[in-house]
Amino acid sequence: MSVNTNVASVLAMGAERLRAGASAAAAASATLLAHTLRTTRVRLMSDGASAVAPAAVERYRVLIERRAGGEPLAYLTGEREFWSLPLRVSRAVLVPRPETELLVERALALRAAPEGRVLDLGTGSGAIALALASERPGWQVTATDISTAALAVARANAVHLGRTSIDFRQGSWFAPLAGARFDLIVSNPPYVAADDPALGDPALAHEPRRALTPGADALRCLREIARDAPQHLEPGGWLLLEHGAAQAAAVRHELVLAGCRYVRSHRDLAGHERITEGQYDPL
Fold it and tell me: Fewer CB within 10 Å: N-end or C-end of the chain?
């Protein structure tokens, strides 16, 4: 390509290579070129005739090829928005999903008090913990993850967003909490069975497998969290779990076995039962 290659022609090249739906390919192409040129998509769209240097075109080509291979946009740009918060992400963490915002909504609805102790299990990028801390600055938020690499991403996000009061701890689920109790416990644990065809999605091949699947038993992590949560919930505290679209009935059963009342599930924007909650009643 010549030095005079312009924004419009580079965008067209990227969209053609991606060959997704016309709007999706154009959007991805624009996002990656804006990232490459360190500008915004809005400014990019108004600069169609501007020249793009050959070195920038080559950097862009590399990103386009990675995207064509199924790698999520968030890993290519290093950022994903969640709850209107700009989060940094890497292949050490799952890409935050819009449906997980329902978990944040329900936690905020269940506890309006300006103070409280809240736990996010398997925090990954820190998305849920950071969203809750941003909405309830007076809450004491603790977040755990078994992955030291994931915790490094979460801590970096907390610093970037000025939420450094979050207490991040390394370990599996409740292991690093030494009997601490909370008013709310939330989690989006792995819940896809290892033999589920969904894991064949090219995009998921780039995400940490341990954060997607607990193995052959899709409910294993959900069951473990529900079983152990009473040891860490204050009486009247709430447990909220994200799960698969067909798992709500099984998760409700586990919460009842754990001594929860007011157990109910909530549907995401796609109409799937995605979040199940219950209030711990030790009596």
Answer: C
Q: Is 140 exposed, middle or buried (0-12, 13-18, 19+ CB in 10 A)?
A: middle
- CA-based angle 122:123:125, to the nearest 5? 135
Q: β-pairing, 233-242 with 182-187?
A: parallel
- Within 10 angstroms of residue 188's Cβ, the number of other Cβ atoms is 25
- Cβ-in-10-Å burial (0-12, 13-18, 19+) of 182 comes to buried
- Give the distance, in angstroms, between the CA of residue 283 and the centroid of all CA atoms in the same chain: 35
Q: Could you tell me the CA-to-CA distances from 279 to 40, 111, 123, 182, 183 in Å, in that order?
A: 45, 11, 21, 12, 10
Q: Which amino acid is at 256?
A: V
Q: Which amino acid is at 94?
A: L
- In degrees and rounded to multiples of 5, residue 240 shows phi and psi of -125, 125
Strand-pair partners of 86: 81
- 65: β partners: none
Identify the CA nearest to 87 among candidates 74, 99, 76.
Answer: 74
**Quick count: other Cβ atoms within 10 Å of Cβ 58?**
11
Tens digit of each residue's pLDDT, the chain (283 residues) = 344 587 887 877 787 788 755 567 788 888 888 888 888 877 877 776 788 888 888 888 899 888 888 888 999 999 999 999 999 999 999 999 999 999 999 999 999 999 999 999 999 999 999 999 999 999 999 999 999 999 999 999 999 999 999 999 999 999 999 889 999 999 999 999 999 998 888 878 889 999 999 999 999 999 999 999 999 999 999 999 999 999 999 999 999 999 999 999 999 999 999 999 999 988 7
Find how far residue 150's CA is from the centre of its chain.
12
Q: Can you tell me the distance from the alpha carbon of 128 to that of 240, in angstroms, rounded to the nearest whole number?
A: 12
HEC readout, 105-147: HHHHHHCCCCCEEEEEECCCCCHHHHHHHHHCCCEEEEEEECC
Q: CA-to-CA distance for 92 and 77, rounded, in angstroms?
A: 14
